[in-house]
């Protein structure tokens, strides 16, 4: 069983042949099965272990990995739609997220993608991801603005 | 403020530069040179923040900008940072700065993907110890941040009115015709008002006086006939003018569209490789085709119809108010409300249109996904599943169109009801006045009233057109933007015009201290030096990304080196005329492209006047003659996208024949034998062996065995030539790069297929 811990620098590590190796955790299915299947890899990207579930891990290890996964799975969540403007070749969005107000652009023929879980995902031209967890929970005005793009 | 700066602020609402005018900033950086900087837009609690990571020639600084003050959060001497670790997340990236694996851990920064490209450049500069960068830090930051948006749309700076003015500028050569066409359009709209006026006059001045015996039958008949002739004249004149307008404007529209198509196609020929890497050929074809078509539609009909509609409406308002002010007012007052209703409907339809468009794009993307992969669908027996998926998507789109049609089909009868309400209002106001005594000042003649009724029918069409102005204008502007986007793109490496054309090309090549980078930061070629004698065959070998293809691209002058010089026969490449270069430097590419046309036309592409014997001789040299003659139509076989299907090896041999006929003194072979089977490779190799005779050849090959006839091999690694020599010389270097590559390939090729 692989042991993952944070070293004195606060970095995720494991021990291979008695020496400390920095590791990273890559979720295999970051959207569809976000709580299962994680690849533990060294800095060169070589897989050291594949975890099918975190259930088998010790409570301490599970906590460390879960903390790490929160950061790995971070996306900007849309709380409110302030504006959507159609432009030549571009669509401008102005939205409120828990991190603050953000303005971004998508290509005109790029639409919010409905995920298996029912949430919507918008990818802007820079590759940033914006999630709408639950369309119905948005305020009335946001729903009105967003409706043509998701309904 | 420069344009890039404005664009970043307007589009991304992000700071476009380090804060200037802050005294503290000068104190922070002092005499150091700022090489690069990037915005750090997330703090440790993943909230948006305004921090700057600044790399100078001495230090790395993390600054926070708050209330016009800059605070240093972290500062490090550059030589202390030995390790930069990147942690990729779905929506952010973390960079950790360390002295070594064992620490100390200095600090980490987190940022969204928007800042990632810039941060990658900073990371590279830190890790490689870059001390000098050609471009200014601000320029690098702004161009890097804007790149994805500019790739999506080139000319962000254009205002709507600029695009419209530019579009109208294309009418200038046809000024006289435009004036005639527009005058005809306006005259036509005013003449349209005459029949209603004449009808009213006929009733008031002929019919009613005759009925009340004020006019005798003969005079009334004559006058009636005169009015009828007047009406005939008005209608004839109107239709004649409309004919003139339609004829002239539609031809002008075609001429403008043709001018734009020609200008676009001509301009596309001047653009560089990076542009074609960015834009799909389908998108370029639609700009030349459907976008210019929309512009024709706008000029031929849009501009004119709007003018006619505005003219008619203005004329109606004036005539109605002049004929009877009170009744006219009753008809004019509802107009703004009707216009607003049309505008409101337009906005509603826009939303429905977006929904239908989105669902339609799902249908088309399914088609473009499945149809090219139909073989896979059949092999895996998934036909019924694909039909089911398509049916579902098609159904969703069709339902959306129902909503679309429901809305407009409901709206127009309602609008008509609004127009008819005006008529009813008119009746209600007019009836008591018509029934009032003739001598009463309020009395309304039935002729005037009939005119009003006819004017009411004229009102619907201009309202409809004005309601479509915004959609029409947006469509035309969007097409204009897409066309101007291409026309405004400039080749980053414009070719000099006044250049040398030496009489002969011997094929001597020299690279002298050549440096090249695609992004002006990460060097792809670092001080490359070599000399190739005329007629030599050089094999370029090395791992992917080492710089082999870049060397050939510089030699073909697809790009220019950033520093250093490339010479052919002692002449700087930049001084040689482009046509001369294309004649003397030929390329056989990995993916041969055949145009739609006959085989002989494809072989003779570079030399359209070549005679039949030369074409056949070239095909023979390329080992293509025999397979061509095995086709029923021989050299007349149509190939290309819509023609006969040829195998990869056959296409490659035609492209070699094309190169043989072109007869360049310098030949570049870029992986010409990859992706074909061994037998085909042998045939191609045999053709290439004949092709390289008496030419200077630079060959890139994945399979090292194909370079066995090379006079020398250059081993390219990490942007430089690390080994040169013959196969035997290179194999004898202990721990040599080439020997290693050869060993790996030999092991791979001799390995059993299955373990």
Helix-strand layout with pairing:
The complex is a heterodimer of chains A (151) and B (755).
Chain A: E1 5-6, E2 12-16, E3 19-27, E4 36-42, E5 47-53, H1 59-72, E6 76-77, E7 80-86, E8 90-97, E9 100-107, E10 113-114, E11 120-123, E12 129-132, H2 140-150
Parallel strand pairs in A: 6-12
Antiparallel strand pairs in A: 1-2, 2-3, 3-4, 4-5, 7-8, 8-9, 10-11, 11-12
Chain B: H1 3-12, H2 23-29, E1 34-42, E2 48-56, E3 59-66, E4 69-77, E5 83-88, E6 93-98, E7 105-111, H3 116-128, H4 137-152, H5 160-169, H6 175-191, H7 194-211, H8 217-270, H9 273-278, H10 281-323, H11 325-332, H12 334-370, H13 374-379, H14 383-435, H15 446-458, H16 460-487, E8 509-517, E9 523-532, E10 537-541, H17 548-555, E11 563-568, E12 571-572, H18 578-584, E13 585-588, E14 597-598, H19 599-603, H20 612-621, H21 625-629, E15 638-639, H22 648-662, E16 666-670, H23 678-691, E17 696-700, E18 712-717, E19 720-725, H24 727-731, H25 737-750
Characterization of this structure:
The complex is a heterodimer of chains A (151) and B (755). With 151 residues, chain A is of the alpha+beta class. Chain A folds into 2 domains: 5-62, no CATH class; 76-150, no CATH class. Chain A contains 2 helices and 12 strands. Chain A has helices at residues 59-72, 140-150, and strands at 5-6, 12-16, 19-27, 36-42, 47-53, 76-77, 80-86, 90-97, 100-107, 113-114, 120-123, 129-132. In chain A, the strands form 3 sheets. In chain A, strands 1-2-3-4-5 form a 5-stranded antiparallel beta sheet. In chain A, a hairpin with a 5-residue loop joins strand 1 and strand 2. The radius of gyration of chain A is 19 Å and the shape is elongated. With 755 residues, chain B is an alpha+beta fold. Among the domains of chain B are: 3-152, Pleckstrin-homology domain (PH domain)/Phosphotyrosine-binding domain (PTB) (PH-domain like, Roll); 325-443, ABC transporter type 1, transmembrane domain (ABC transporter transmembrane region fold, Up-down Bundle); 534-560 and 577-750, Rossmann fold (3-Layer(aba) Sandwich). Helices cover 56% and strands 15% of the residues of chain B. Chain B is built from 25 helices and 19 strands. Chain B has a 6-stranded mixed beta sheet with strand order 13-16-17-10-18-19. In chain B, strands 1-2-3-4 form a 4-stranded antiparallel beta sheet. In chain B, a hairpin with a 4-residue loop joins strand 5 and strand 6. In chain B, helix 6 (175-191) runs antiparallel to helix 8, helix 12 runs antiparallel to helix 14 (383-435) and helix 22 runs parallel beside helix 23. Chain B is elongated. The mean pLDDT of chain B is 84. Chains A and B meet through strand 3, strand 9 and helix 2 of A and strand 6, helix 4, helix 12 and helix 16 of B.
């Amino acid at each position: 069983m692989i042991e993952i811990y944070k070293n004195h620098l606060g970095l995720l590590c494991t021990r291979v042949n008695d020496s400390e190796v920095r590791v990273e955790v890559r979720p295999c299915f970051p959207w569809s099965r976000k709580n299962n299947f994680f690849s533990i890899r060294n800095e060169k990207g070589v897989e050291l272990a594949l975890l099918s579930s975190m259930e088998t891990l010790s409570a301490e290890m599970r906590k460390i990995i879960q903390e790490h996964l929160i950061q790995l799975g971070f996306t900007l969540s849309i709380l409110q739609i302030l504006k959507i403007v159609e432009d030549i070749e571009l669509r401008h969005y102005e939205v409120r997220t828990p991190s603050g107000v953000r303005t971004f652009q998508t290509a005109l023929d790029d639409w919010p993608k409905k995920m298996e879980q029912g949430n919507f995902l918008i990818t802007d031209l820079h590759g940033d991801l914006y999630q709408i967890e639950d369309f119905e929970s948005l305020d009335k005005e946001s729903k009105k603005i967003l409706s043509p793009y998701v309904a | 403020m420069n344009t890039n700066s404005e664009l970043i602020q307007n589009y991304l609402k992000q700071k476009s530069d380090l804060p200037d005018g802050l005294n503290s900033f000068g104190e922070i950086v002092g005499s150091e040179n700022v090489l690069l900087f990037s915005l750090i837009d997330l703090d440790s609690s993943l909230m948006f923040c305004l921090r700057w990571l600044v790399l100078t020639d001495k230090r790395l600084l993390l600054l926070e900008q708050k209330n016009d003050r800059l605070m240093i959060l972290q500062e490090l001497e550059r030589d202390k940072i030995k390790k930069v670790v990147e942690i990729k997340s779905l929506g952010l990236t973390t960079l950790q700065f360390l002295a070594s694996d064992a620490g100390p851990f200095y600090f980490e920064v987190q940022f969204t993907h928007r800042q990632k490209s810039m941060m990658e450049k900073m990371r590279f500069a830190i890790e490689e110890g870059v001390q000098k960068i050609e471009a200014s830090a601000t320029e690098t930051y702004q161009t890097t941040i804007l790149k994805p948006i500019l790739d999506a749309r080139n000319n962000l700076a254009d205002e709507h009115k600029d695009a419209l003015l530019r579009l109208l500028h294309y009418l200038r050569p046809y000024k006289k015709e435009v004036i005639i066409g527009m005058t005809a359009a306006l005259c036509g709209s005013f003449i349209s008002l005459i029949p209603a006026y004449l009808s009213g006059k006929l009733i008031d001045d002929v019919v009613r006086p005759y009925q009340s015996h004020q006019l005798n039958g003969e005079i009334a008949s004559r006058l009636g006939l005169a009015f009828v002739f007047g009406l005939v004249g008005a209608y004839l004149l109107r239709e004649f003018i409309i004919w003139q307008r339609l004829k002239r404007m539609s031809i002008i529209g075609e001429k403008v569209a043709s001018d734009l198509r020609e200008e676009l196609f001509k301009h596309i020929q001047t653009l560089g490789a990076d542009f074609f890497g960015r834009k799909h050929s389908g998108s370029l074809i639609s700009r030349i085709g459907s976008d210019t078509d929309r512009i024709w539609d706008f000029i031929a009909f849009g501009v004119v119809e709007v003018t006619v509609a505005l003219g008619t409406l203005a004329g109606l308002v004036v005539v109605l108010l002049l004929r009877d002010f009170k009744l006219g007012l009753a008809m004019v007052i509802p107009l703004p409300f009707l216009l607003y209703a049309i505008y409101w409907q337009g906005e509603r339809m826009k939303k429905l249109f977006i929904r239908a468009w989105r669902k339609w794009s799902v249908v088309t993307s399914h088609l473009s996904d499945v149809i090219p992969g139909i073989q896979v669908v059949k092999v895996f027996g998934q036909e019924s599943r694909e039909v089911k998926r398509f049916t579902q998507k098609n159904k969703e789109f069709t339902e959306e169109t129902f909503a679309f049609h429901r809305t407009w089909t409901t709206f127009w009868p309602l609008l008509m009801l609004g127009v008819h309400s005006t008529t009813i209002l008119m009746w209600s106001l007019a009836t008591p006045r018509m029934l009032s005594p003739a001598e009463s000042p309020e009395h309304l003649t039935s002729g005037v009233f009939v005119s009003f009724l006819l004017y009411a029918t004229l009102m619907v069409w201009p309202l409809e057109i004005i309601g479509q102005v915004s959609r029409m204008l947006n469509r035309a502007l969007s097409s204009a933007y897409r066309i101007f986007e291409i026309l405004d793109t400039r080749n980053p490496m414009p070719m000099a015009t006044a250049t040398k054309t030496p009489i002969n090309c011997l094929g001597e090549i020299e690279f002298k201290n050549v440096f090249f980078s695609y992004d002006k930061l990460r060097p792809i070629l670092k001080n490359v030096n070599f000399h190739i004698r005329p007629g030599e065959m050089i094999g370029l070998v090395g791992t992917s990304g080492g710089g082999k293809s870049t060397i050939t691209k510089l030699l073909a002058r697809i790009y220019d080196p950033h520093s250093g010089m490339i010479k052919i026969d002692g002449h700087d490449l930049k001084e040689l005329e482009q046509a001369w270069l294309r004649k003397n430097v030929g390329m056989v590419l990995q993916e041969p492209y055949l145009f739609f046309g006959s085989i002989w036309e494809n072989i003779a592409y570079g030399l359209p006047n070549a005679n039949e014997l030369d074409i056949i001789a070239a095909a023979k040299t390329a080992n293509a003659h025999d397979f061509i003659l095995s086709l029923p139509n021989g050299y007349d076989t149509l190939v290309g996208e819509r023609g006969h299907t040829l195998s990869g090896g056959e296409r490659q041999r035609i492209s070699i024949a094309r190169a043989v006929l072109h007869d360049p003194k310098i030949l570049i072979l870029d992986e010409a034998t990859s992706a074909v089977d061994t037998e085909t490779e042998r045939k191609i190799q045999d053709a290439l062996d004949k092709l390289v005779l008496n030419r200077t050849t630079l060959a890139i090959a994945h399979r090292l065995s194909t370079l066995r006839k090379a006079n020398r091999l250059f081993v390219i690694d990490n942007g430089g030539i690390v080994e040169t020599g013959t196969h035997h010389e290179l194999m004898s270097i202990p721990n040599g790069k080439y020997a290693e590559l050869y060993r790996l390939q030999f092991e791979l090729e001799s390995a059993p297929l299955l373990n």
